[in-house]
Specification:
The complex is a heterodimer of chains A (about 160) and B (about 160).
Chain A lengths: L1 H6 L2 H13 L5 H29 L8 H17 L2 H9 L1 H4 L3 H13 L5 H8 L4 H24 L4
Chain B lengths: L1 H18 L21 E2 L6 H12 L4 E8 L4 E7 L7 H15 L5 E4 L2 H15 L5 H18 L1
Parallel strand pairs in B: 1-2, 3-4
Antiparallel strand pairs in B: 2-3
Classes of the chains: A mainly alpha (about 160), B alpha/beta (about 160).
Chain lengths: ~160, ~160
């Protein structure tokens, strides 16, 4: 950074200082609070859905996560299609991206974005552009954790 | 943003109106959210009611546990409980301790212990149906066996 500044002309340095002076400060705390509340609300909805499945269907606490996640992803996909989730994303930032609903949003928004390039090369080829890495790392980390658990189980630690 | 607020208001109105229907509230309707502590039952009349009450007292004595339902059938006894939120990290230890206590105190009984919400809900529903007479002894025992099968499927 210091060497970069050294290479700058006095005019550039002056401009840099001016830019730093007028640069808007990011409202980090405000963003965190927004993300916390919206993310929490999404989780409350998820909890309500899982209770719904426990009450009205034959799902136990152990396996109720599967239909709940599927429902949440489906709902976020619908909301993305209607343009609601984008607004929510603009407002809440990570609060709407970190829960599993963010996954549905990533898939559908990429599909909508590349729709003009055709169904195969556009939608099919780009749908998992962002979500693909999520799936890859998710599956891989699950494999590693399962491997560690199996080994610990074999050695009698767990 | 306006759409989201409208959506949330409509959803909460629907939720509130659905909760406000005139009907007698049963314990099982809120069993997952509040403490119910239903009275323990035996599926067969005059077959160890004192014993199940004693079991319930012993299980309730655990500090980590706050809600207990006990159903005694012909062959097995179902003990379902809810664990205090901050103690949920020690679920396995609590289950182990509970099993040990029950086996020490009632060596002849065949216990099935679970902390699953679904099992708890089904146990409360069974107790309610048995109490209001919707289930005969035979039906209650059959339902208990179905619940026990559900717990064994989870393992």
């Amino acid at each position: 950074m210091a060497s970069k500044q050294k290479n700058m002309t006095p005019q550039q340095q002056k401009y840099q200082q001016l830019q730093q002076k007028h640069e808007l400060k990011r409202p980090v705390l405000k963003n965190c609070i927004k993300a916390f509340w919206v993310g929490g609300l999404i989780c409350v909805v998820g909890q309500a859905i899982s209770y719904f499945y426990i009450y009205f269907f034959h799902f136990t606490e152990q396996n109720v996560g599967n239909p709940t996640v599927a429902t949440m992803v489906f709902l976020s996909m619908l909301l993305t299609g209607f343009g609601v989730y984008d607004r929510l994303g603009q407002f809440a930032g990570a609060g709407s991206a970190v829960p599993v609903t963010g996954f549905g949003n990533a898939v559908i928004s990429a599909a909508i974005e590349h729709r003009t390039e055709g169904f195969v090369l556009g939608v099919g080829g780009n749908m998992f552009k962002l979500a693909g890495s999520v799936i890859l790392f998710g599956v891989f980390s699950a494999f590693v954790v399962a491997l560690i658990k199996t080994l610990l189980g074999m050695w009698g630690v767990l | 943003m306006v759409y989201i607020i409208r959506l949330m208001v409509i959803a909460s109105m629907i939720l509130m109106s659905s909760c406000n229907q005139v009907q007698t509230e049963r314990d099982s309707q809120m069993a997952l959210m509040k403490t119910t502590n239903p009275n323990p039952i035996v599926t067969e009349k005059n077959n160890g009611q004192d014993k199940v009450e004693d079991i319930e007292k012993k299980v309730s004595g655990f500090n980590e546990i706050y809600d207990v339902a006990v159903v005694k059938g012909k062959e097995a006894t179902l003990v379902v409980y809810k664990v205090k939120h901050m103690q949920r990290f020690n679920m396995k230890k609590i289950e182990k301790d509970l099993n040990k206590t029950l086996e020490e105190n009632y060596p002849k009984e065949n216990f099935t212990v679970s902390s699953d919400y679904k099992i708890f809900l089904e146990a409360v529903r069974l107790i309610e149906k048995k109490k209001d007479g919707s289930y005969s002894d035979k039906q209650a025992d059959k339902r208990l066996n179905e619940i026990l099968k559900m717990t064994s499927d989870m393992k």
